[in-house]
Design brief:
The protein is built from 16 helices and six strands. By secondary structure, the protein is mainly alpha-helical. It is globular.
């Protein structure tokens, strides 16, 4: 959010007009005014309004502190202590280095001594807001960094003024909802997902080493461990998705972090199913059969788990920077779940063709079955993308008044569709199919990441 020039006046007015919500009490062992841990813990279960939606104070405070500071605690204080204390003692807290500045160049411009700056340091001695003039002459990257800093300042002012911490006695969450929310906040689901996937990849690596230097009899046990980690990662991902849906009251597909989490869910499921099919075929064929699909199954699971683990890691990193602003009107549509679900399933399938192609290039003895599986995965990937583009056009008509506007995201989605349609029309012989699909995946990366961070457009919020 962009903060106007008169923000300093608002800042002073809210300080003078504050009405305390809680009983003031100093924090033992800390040199900053605030409330005690016991008192803050009692607030965790209370219902507050978060953008008009009832949530626990624990959820609100965690998201706000992670967004502004980048961590869930500050100087040993819980998020509940920080947010409640800021509300009670704004003058004391305005000098605390709570605002994280990710852009080093921006940090130098505003005179930051480290990664964090205080609220008071962003105002001149005459009360003028120092951030507003930085917009003049800033390029796209710099503007994005300034807007991010601007948003954090607005969040802190919203905490101090009480606009972001609203308690309505008429609204109270049921006990099961409170318990579920606190449980979800305590378990780092996204972190567990990529940890399990990387652990499975390590066990897969040990499997190959064992098979190569020791023997096959014990290596099968390692492969069972590999499959165990993959299955656990899928189940944790599924539980995370369901709980997010219940707690948010909407399908969790409204930002990059949520869609990446969904991609990991679909991708791990597809990998599990493909491995099961391969194992079944392996049991039906002779051990020395050149077409034996089990030959590449282990390599597929290893590379797939590394790939989905990296995607899960990125999703977790984005989750550490939660979206605390309201959903844009364009995202408040029933087409959101339909369009995004279709597109992300498509991307998961196309990513799986990338993994299979990598296996095909690494294993020169890969048979025709591997190529056939790659094409079988490619077909639904393309058709899901077609369905995603069509539903996206209908959504665009409803949101922006036109089915197609050659927005960068739309344009690159069309390029991706064309790129992946080529192997379905032109038969690529030998290893050229694998090489082509490896390079084709760059269009997916550009559509999903590149457009958001390089080109912008109407879809830059996704």
């Amino acid at each position: 959010m962009r903060i106007s020039d008169n923000i300093s006046g608002v800042f002073l007015r809210v300080i003078l007009f504050l009405l305390p919500l809680l009983t003031a009490e100093g924090i033992k062992g800390e040199k900053i005014a605030g409330i005690a841990r016991q008192q803050a813990d009692s607030l965790a279960r209370q219902t507050v309004l978060y953008d008009g939606i009832p949530v626990t104070f624990n959820t609100l405070s965690r998201d706000l502190l992670k967004k502004v500071y980048g961590k869930e605690t500050y100087r040993g204080l819980t998020s509940e202590q920080v947010v409640a204390s800021m509300r009670l003692y704004p003058v004391e807290w305005k000098d605390e280095p709570l605002i994280r500045v990710k852009d080093k160049e921006l940090g130098v411009k505003i005179g930051a001594k480290g990664k964090w700056v205080s609220l008071s340091s962003l105002f001149d001695s005459d009360g003028s807001y120092r951030i507003t003039p930085l917009y003049a002459g800033a390029d796209r990257k710099e503007t994005r960094s300034i807007e991010e800093l601007d948003e954090k300042v607005g969040i802190l002012l919203g905490i101090i003024s009480g606009e972001l911490v609203v308690k309505d006695d008429a609204v109270r969450l049921p006990e099961w909802r409170v318990n579920l929310e606190l449980f979800y906040n305590r378990i780092p689901f996204l972190k567990l997902i990529f940890i399990f996937l990387f652990a499975g990849a390590v066990s897969g690596g040990l499997y190959f080493l064992w098979r190569k230097f020791i023997g096959k009899s014990v290596s099968s046990r390692l492969m069972l461990i590999n499959g165990f980690f993959l299955s656990v990662a899928f189940n944790v991902s599924l539980i995370n998705f369901i709980l997010e849906w219940i707690l948010a009251g909407r399908i969790p597909l409204s930002n990059t972090g949520e869609t990446l989490s969904f991609t990991v869910l679909v991708g791990t499921l597809l990998t599990v199913l493909l491995m099961m099919i391969r194992r079944r075929k392996k049991g039906e064929m002779r051990e020395g059969d050149e077409r034996n699909p089990g030959r590449d199954a282990d390599g597929l699971s290893l590379i797939a788990m590394l790939f989905w683990g990296c995607v899960g890691l990125v999703a977790w990193m984005l989750g550490e920077n939660p979206v605390v602003t309201p959903l844009m009107p364009a995202l408040q549509s029933p087409w959101l779940s339909i369009h995004v679900t279709l597109v992300m399933i498509s991307y998961a399938l196309l990513a799986l063709t990338f993994v299979i192609s990598l296996i095909g290039l690494l294993n020169r003895r890969a048979g025709k079955d591997l190529r056939r599986e790659c094409i079988c995965v490619l077909h639904p990937g393309v058709w899901f993308l077609v369905a995603g583009i069509v539903t996206g056009s209908i959504w665009a008509k409803d949101a922006w008044g036109a089915y197609w506007s050659w927005d960068p995201k739309e344009t690159w989605a069309l390029i991706t569709l064309i790129a992946y349609s080529v192997p379905l029309i032109v038969k690529l012989r030998g290893r050229w199919l694998y090489i082509y699909l490896l390079f084709a995946f760059l269009t997916v990366l550009m559509t999903y990441f590149g457009v958001n961070y390089l080109l912008g457009g109407k879809h830059s919020y996704v």
